[in-house]
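Dear colleague,

Thank you for sharing your sequence with our group. We've completed the structure prediction you requested, and as agreed, I am returning the results in plain text so they can be pasted directly into your records. Please verify that the sequence below matches your submission; if there's any discrepancy, let me know and we will rerun it promptly.
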Amino acid sequence: MVTLRPMGESAVLAEVADLAAVTRLHAALAADPLPGVDDLVPAARTVLVAFDPRRTSAAVVGAWVRAAERAVPDAAPPGPRVEVPVRYDGVDLVDTAELLGIRPDELVARHRAAEWTVAFTGFAPGFAYLVSPDWPFDVPRLARPRTRVPAGAVGLAGSFTGAYPRDTPGGWRLIASTDAVLFDPDAAEPVLLPPRARVRFVPARERVRVGAGYLAGGPPAAAATPSPHTTPALRIVAPGPLATVQDLGRPGRASLGVARSGALDREALRIANRLVGNAESAAGIEITLGGFRARAEVDIWVAVTGALADVSVDGRAADAYAPLLLSAGAELSIAPARGGLRLYLAIRGGVDAPTALGSRATDVLAGLGPAPLRADAVVRSGSAVGEIPAIDGFPWSVPPSALDMVLGPGPRAEWFAPAAVDALVEATWTVSPDLDRIGIRLDGPALARVRPEELPSEGMRPGAIQVPPHGRPVILLADGPVTGGYPVIGVVPDAALDALAQVRPGDRVRFRRG
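Please find the predicted structure tokens below.
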């Protein structure tokens, strides 16, 4: 029997009895697509169905899911066999064995002896959730996730094991490491461990080859070459704390473990592009906090939008939210932001950079897209498609230091005490210094749970408000994981995410019921 749980305004979480039922339901939904549904994300006991409210409704989606439950297809055949070389050197190995009441060598032996199957992918591209009937343990996650887990770390959480494809935050208990190339967006088969693959962990050796792909080392990556139709536009003098190439992202790929990514303040990027005659979806530069300088390589039109910061050209004040013509050799400077956090720099013709899975966006969690910009990097522009608009001034406002936003329904509100749900909307939350493109941690009262058990990993969305065991909420942003194991108490509407992109440490956030 399927239970439908709302995930904000544009997604439904379909919960079933077990992983086998998830596999059947996901296959049935994929075989009979519904117009307006953008993504299906299977997980441990749920399938997240993401949809466009302008093209369909939660009621129509719910009826479609229930019909699919009654018309499930035959089980899919098993996937390929893959061996993953590991070293059992994880920092949590001894503590995890003690937690389970066994010796470390017994934990290693059981992990190595089991035949694992990829149940689903998520969290980050290339991150596979592996299960095995030979594995009897249920391992609790860390009470407070690490802010950095190194690439190749092999961990345990609940009944799953998995390997991190790159450096990311994470709450799994780490028992081993691997040099396997788990995700390569340029490969014909970018994911090493696809759904239904049968996996064995074997002692690490220098190189292991399976079929046409490599498990360790991998073939050398091809160097990106600039398009012959692009022009060197800007040379970075100082990128500030973080400057990345961003467009409108990679929507609709969560089922591959790929987050939406793209500009956090999408409206600011769209406006910047319109001001220089670009398509709204053209790639620009997202600048965190300011402190940015670049020199024009050619005569080029640019526009700066987003946070409040002083803009100058060769030391002379210039306007934000207006097209600026930079002469070759001129230096554009953006001072540290005085209000808001992120600025957007559009270049006429758009930023030209290599694409990954259809987008030029830099995903800092997954490592997709161009690397963050460094001093002396040359930013290239494409061909202009529109005219520079004639404007006297563009209306805009300084990003506020206090936000008040509607709270949409979360699928796991019943996991929390009624007082915790009330506290979420009654408290004034302070933005923690712990914020990035992945999420925003809020400081305030701890939100008490009435269900202390582990939540099996399930699909996530930008705007989902997760609550880790320490009780402080985290709002996921565009580079956030596509699956997670902390309960979602509420969801911020998609329209509010642009405003959240501009909050700074110390700013205030309040929620109100919709």
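Summary note from our side: The two ends are 29 Å apart (CA to CA).

Kind regards,
the structure core
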